[in-house]
Amino acid sequence: MRIVIYNSSSFGGCFDYGRELLDAYSRHPEVSSCSWWIPINADVDKTQGIRNILLNDKPSVENRILRQLHFLFRSFFNPMLLFLRLAATRDSLVILNDFEQLTAFLWVPLFKRVLGRRHKFAIILHDPDRDAYPPNLAWTNYSMNLIMGLTDFAFYHDSLPDKSYYKTGTSCVYLDLPHGIFRMPEPDPECLALIHKMNANHLKIMAIPGNIREEKNYDIAIRSLVALPNFALLIAGAPANARVDSDRYRSLASECGVADRVFWLERYLSAGELSAVVAGADVIVLNYADSFTSQSGILNVAAPFRKVLVVSDGPSSLTAVVRKFSIGTIVTDASPTALATALVQSLENPETKYAAWESYLAFASWDRHVEMAMDCILSNQPELK
């Protein structure tokens, strides 16, 4: 089988996910070739299968309007690049690890009419209930209906929301797959030293790593510090978009009198720096709002470090997997008091929590992910073999 993995982003959890897929599919005995199509600016070692053919997703311009225009241009042009390449490529399974939802009205009909007879399409539903960045809900429903009408396979993690577009047609096969554990480098020594320097009073550090999004409930974490004088909060990551106002959280920390115990690394973190944040923390906090219903890439970053976790009790597949494998403490409700209680409980008997990771690490391997996917693909599309 020939496999093409499409990734229009050059950084972040989705990009790391694509790199792991390339390696795991390339190892499978039924795969004759596997290639990963990524932006020209992606900073990766040029190993076999990597194709830097998509548009730069980190423009040098700082002007917000120009950056938005560049994003729109990419949303139109990258699918056309994919189309032209696939038109000249032998029959393959195309895994959409990214997909341009905003311009689906343009590219999906073209793919379906011209490429659908030769290629099969699979989609990774990383955030199956948050694929809503188009202007309004009606556009989201319309675009996702188009995309799901193109795909032959849809892969998700643990749970799939009850959405009309996941019921589009009967030909798409849905499969629940383990996320996979990210291979993390050694902690960046300079970043780790900076964290130790910030924590001069040797407090317990709860960390919220990754892109800064409102749904991560930073306000609850900041307010919980009032009842936790021996804890500090480390917020590490870059704002997810221009709408995120991190100054609001700084002001809240000052109002609560805990500003000296809120540490900031507000920037895009390299893999080594992310390792340092996880290694330097006592607890990783994944206390999301109910709007979060997917898996968390940070869970699978923390897994190799077997870190103590505190997780929200929400409708997400993250909560489901943490509960299933007993790898974290569940917050009872969305309040500072509940989070403070969970943080104290999470540090009781840490050796037991460390040992609980072993069953999850065995479950969530990339080779297992690919083996399950290939069994499903070949049983439903044996002509791909």
Q: Spans of 5+ residues with little confidence (pLDDT < 50)? A: none
Helix/strand/pairing category: alpha/beta
Order of helices and strands: EHEEHEHEHEEHEHEHEHEHEHEHHH
Specify the CATH architecture of the largest domain: 3-Layer(aba) Sandwich
Total strand count, please? 13
- What radius of gyration results from the CA coordinates? 21 Å
Whole-number mean pLDDT:
89
What is the helix tally? 13
In the CATH scheme, what's the topology name of the largest domain?
Answer: Rossmann fold
Largest sheet: 7 strands, parallel
Q: What is the strand arrangement across the widest sheet?
A: 3-2-1-4-5-6-7
Q: In what range is the share of β-strand residues?
A: 15-25%
**Shape category:** globular
Span between termini: 5 Å
Name the features:
41% helix; 13 helices; six-stranded parallel β-sheet; Rossmann fold; alpha/beta; seven-stranded parallel β-sheet; 16% strand; 385 residues
Describe the structure.
It is a single chain. The chain is α/β, with parallel strands linked by helices and 385 residues long. The chain folds into two domains: 2-180 and 365-379, Rossmann fold (3-Layer(aba) Sandwich), CATH 3.40.50; 189-363, Glycogen Phosphorylase B (Rossmann fold, 3-Layer(aba) Sandwich), CATH 3.40.50.2000. It has 13 helices and 13 strands. The strands form two sheets. A seven-stranded parallel sheet has the order 3-2-1-4-5-6-7. A six-stranded parallel sheet has the order 10-9-8-11-12-13, sandwiched between helices. Helix 7 links the parallel strand 9 (231-236) and strand 10 (262-265). Helix 5 (189-198) runs parallel beside helix 8 (271-280). The radius of gyration is 21 Å and the shape is globular. It starts with a strand and ends in a 5-residue tail after the last helix. The model has no long low-confidence stretch (mean pLDDT 89).
